[in-house]
Fold each of these.
Amino acid sequence: MFRMALTGKKKIRKMPDERRREITEAAARLISERGFNGISLKDVADEVGMSQPGLLHYIGNKDGLLSLLITDIYDTSGTPDDFLRSGLPGSDPEAPLFPAYLRFLVRHNAQRRQMVQLYMVLEAEAFNPEHPLNEYFLNRPMEVWLHYSKYPWKLPPGVEWDVHMQAIVRMVIEAMDGIQLRWLRQPPIDYYDEWLAFERVLFPSPVWDGYR
């Protein structure tokens, strides 16, 4: 007679940052495919192999999931501060070039297609006044303007930030949203090349020569 050794899998406890990354990746994938209203917290929990109570520990509630995805992740990368730290042409912290920053942002977004798709899906859904991000998207143009206004952009002679640039920043947002929608569709386009075509319109020669 012999005793059979019983072996079981040891549960691996993951670090909070790793768990949070898994949650955001799963949620971004599911929402970009089905929309925010088309998923449940159980869907996200099942995707990452967690219980719902375990998931709630990280996000609080379903609206907290959106906050984690948009305000804590999407909005905190590809920022002007990231550009100023990049050492790229035009990133002089004392006199950065605004069009150069926008090219940096386009390249950054081109590397996170799923997050961009998530963002565009949520923006469309948020037309509904009951959507948790309705106010966020309503306020977005002004919030972007105020944020960009904190930086000492180097502008062409005769172009003043507070006087001339608010309409341009608004059109930048509109152009980027439109390009991103087209980029996500078929047949594919080159996101960066398409932006360069818009850049020539928004920041035309000869006024912006040397300031792009």
Amino acid sequence: MKKIILLLALAFSAFLSHAQNAVTLKAGDAAPDFKLKNVDNKEVSFGTFKDAKGYIVVFTCNTCPYAIGYEKRIIDLDKKFKPQGYPVIAINPNDPEASTADTFAKMQDLAKDKKYPFPYLFDPGQKITDEYGAKRTPHIFIVSKTAKGNVVEYVGAIDNDPEGNNPQKIKYAEDVIASLKSGQKPAITQTKEIGCTVKRKAKA
């Protein structure tokens, strides 16, 4: 019995270690490119958006109440800023075995139902999730396209109003893009992400 408990404890420890190993990118870091399957079955990367000046990369999902609460705000970000050169690219970081409502088929259903105007990408094995160090849903990374490559400018929350009822909210994402468009560095480059933890399957 003690041996079984010890094995379970070791397995759980290994799982937690894996879940916490990825270091979250920060402002100034290179933003890793990717080629992930969109809900329309086409692959999407940064290069898909030839005329982009930057990107709003959002790790979000079908299931988290925070992600659901921010859904319209994410849609609104894309509608406002894609014409200005900053499209939203959404990535689902949850493992579909650990979160069965986050399968690719259910991502397709949600995107169709909500008429997502942006790509909603599946991340098999959570590779890109780990490269960015995304911890929660939603977790946002605003990226600039520069002569030296894609660079992270801001990491954290979309705003400081997860309940969606504060008209005086600080719109972090919008403020960052406004700064970038004016040729300035953002005054705030990192905030605490607000949301549910990324769901991972237990390691054998």
Amino acid sequence: MTVTAEPTVTGDEPSGGAAADRRAGQAAGQGVRSRSQHQRRKRIVQAAAALASRGGIEAMQMRTVAERAGVALGTLYRYFPSKMDLVVAVVSEEIDLLERSIERRPPRGGSAAERTVEVLMRATRGLMREPELAEALIRSLLLSDVKTDFSDRMTNLMLRAAVGPAGDIPADDRRRVVARALSSVWTMEMIEMLRGQATAEVIQGRLEISADRLLTD
């Protein structure tokens, strides 16, 4: 007759309930750390944006940002290895604000071109409330070697306004190509405005002509 030995349970081995409690505790601890890290990152980005709004990129000295955010300089560098990484994060935050604004109040223009221009002009007005910050963001797009998804996000915002959800539109689709081109036109128009060489009304007129020509089939 074969005798099957009962498994030995030692005092060092947690029971099933205790192990589950420990895993739950570890998950909760990770959740708290994750929220804390998210809040710390948000403070850093907000501090950088506030400095840039008063003095442009030059004012965004890493030590000054760390002091304003209430974090150690080493902590700041763990989140953002370079100043341009930080600038790109500020750009992303501004796009987040624009996306939430578009979701709350979608463009109401009667045509795809009109809705697309409304998106771009709302971005223009939002940025120009803080000209120094706007200049810092535009400069970062032109000069930074750090990869940013700014063009992709602006393209998707315009496509969503023009034709609806943009997720199913292929990368080589004419509509996506046109929207990306309009994003580039808008960036150059913003430079003109920041230099004092164009007003918002002039920029809107140019964008309307460009959008009408490109989006009308």
